[in-house]
Structure formats: structure tokens, C-alpha cells
């Protein structure tokens, strides 16, 4: 079981991610293994009587990704989370080998080619650029993007928020998507380890940081 922390800041959470290497944003199915569970109570989601809300943890995501050197995406059983740059090459190596390249002419390949051509796009822009702007297309398209994130082909570069007439950000924001090669450079994504060696390293590390997790839980997180 991971030790309970009372983290109060983006910087402290960033340091914790670098310490453990991997951290889902919300509940992962393993007790204590999520950013939501290690932050202080007053940094979690709260709804005010007037209908407003506050969620410091949610607001920290952007700075953790842009300033903290952490990789963010839907990596853990299709759920979002952070990976330290130290562990990214092994995770990337294993997942790329497991998922394989998108099939030529597939929608997944179209998404990747669109990102490579544009550099980065928020989700709705990417969806429109790929022709998924019709009714009931959103959830279907999101499924393709999630699969690409699980395969480490797509990551989140930052988060973009709309602003009101006073220039203040509001709402849940949109993920600004790109490829890890464009964001970090190809050399920062590769390792000399074989996929099998990367998997072994990942398994040993997860068993160390999650000593009470079952083999099934660890296998699901590693994917």
C-alpha cells in the first residue's frame, strides 16, 4: 500500500510523481494509488452552495505536464495519469511493441498523420480535422484516441481553457494532443532494452511501489 500523503501543491505532487514513477489521476483500483488519494482533502473536488466548484488537483495538471516534465495521457486501463520522464522510455517501449503500429489507411493512422502535420490540436479540432464532426461521432472518435494513448502514440501537451469577457479561464478545459516524438523528441522516447526487458523492469517497479497489489492489478496497470 502506498503511504498516505497530504500534498498541497502542484510542485509537491510533481515531486511525488518523480518519486514513484507512475500515478493515475483518479482511482486506479489499487488503494492509495492515485493523485486524488495522495493530495490533501481540501485539494479535492468540492461543489459550493451556489453551484460553483473548485478542484485544485484538476487545475494542477497543466503545470505538472508543462513545467514538471511528466508525461500525461490515458495510460492506465484507459484512465488518465502521469508517468515520469525517467520511466517513460520503458513504458513506451513495452506498449508500442504490444499495440503495434496503426494499420495503414486506418482511422488511427489518420489521427497520427493529422497530429504530425499540425503539431498539436485540441480534441475537438482533431476530431473535425479527421472528419468526425457529424452527430454521435464524438464518443466513437474519443475511443480511437484513447487506444492511441494506451499505445503511447498520443500524449497530452497541455490543457486549453476558454476565457470569459474578463479574460478569466473557466470550465473543464480541453486536452491539447500531440505525439510524444513531437513533444519530447524521438531520442527521449527510446531505450536500449528489449520490450521483454522493459516489461520485467516495469513489473518489478510496480511490485515495489505497490506491495499490496495483486498480480492481476499490476498487470492491468502495466497493460
Could you please describe the fold and organization of this structure?
- The radius of gyration is 18 Å and the shape is globular.
- Strands 1-5-4 form a three-stranded antiparallel sheet, with helices on both faces. Strands 6-8-7 form a three-stranded antiparallel sheet.
- Helices cover 44% and strands 15% of the residues.
- The two termini are 20 Å apart.
- It has helices at residues 10-20, 35-38, 56-66, 88-99, 107-118, 123-129, 138-150, 180-184, 195-209, 215-222, and strands at 22-24, 46-47, 53-54, 70-76, 79-84, 121-122, 155-160, 174-178.
- Strand 2 (46-47) and strand 3 form a beta hairpin.
- The chain is built from ten helices and eight strands.
- Helix 4 (88-99) packs across helix 9 and helix 9 (195-209) crosses helix 10.
- With 223 residues, it is α+β, with helices and mostly antiparallel strands.
Amino acid at each position: 500500500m502506498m503511504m498516505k500523503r497530504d500534498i498541497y501543491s502542484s510542485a509537491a505532487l510533481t515531486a511525488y510523481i518523480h518519486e514513484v514513477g507512475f500515478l493515475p489521476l483518479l482511482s486506479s483500483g489499487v488503494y492509495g494509488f492515485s493523485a486524488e488519494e495522495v493530495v490533501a482533502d481540501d485539494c479535492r473536488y468540492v461543489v459550493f452552495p451556489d453551484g460553483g466548484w473548485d478542484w485544485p488537483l484538476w487545475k494542477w495538471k497543466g503545470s505538472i505536464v508543462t513545467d514538471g516534465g511528466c508525461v500525461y495521457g490515458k495510460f492506465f486501463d484507459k484512465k488518465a495519469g502521469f508517468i515520469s520522464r525517467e520511466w517513460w522510455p520503458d513504458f513506451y517501449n513495452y506498449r508500442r511493441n504490444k499495440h503495434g503500429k496503426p494499420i495503414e489507411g486506418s482511422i488511427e493512422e489518420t489521427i497520427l498523420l493529422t497530429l504530425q502535420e499540425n503539431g498539436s490540436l485540441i480534441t475537438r479540432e482533431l476530431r473535425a480535422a479527421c472528419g468526425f464532426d457529424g452527430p454521435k461521432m464524438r464518443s466513437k472518435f474519443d475511443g480511437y484516441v484513447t487506444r492511441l494513448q494506451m499505445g503511447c502514440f498520443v500524449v497530452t501537451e497541455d490543457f486549453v481553457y476558454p476565457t470569459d469577457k474578463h479574460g478569466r479561464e473557466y470550465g473543464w478545459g480541453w486536452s491539447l494532443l500531440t505525439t510524444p516524438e513531437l513533444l519530447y523528441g524521438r531520442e527521449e522516447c527510446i531505450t536500449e532494452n528489449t520490450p521483454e526487458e522493459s516489461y520485467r523492469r516495469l513489473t518489478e517497479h510496480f511490485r515495489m511501489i505497490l506491495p499490496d497489489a495483486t498480480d492481476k492489478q499490476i498487470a492491468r496497470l502495466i497493460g
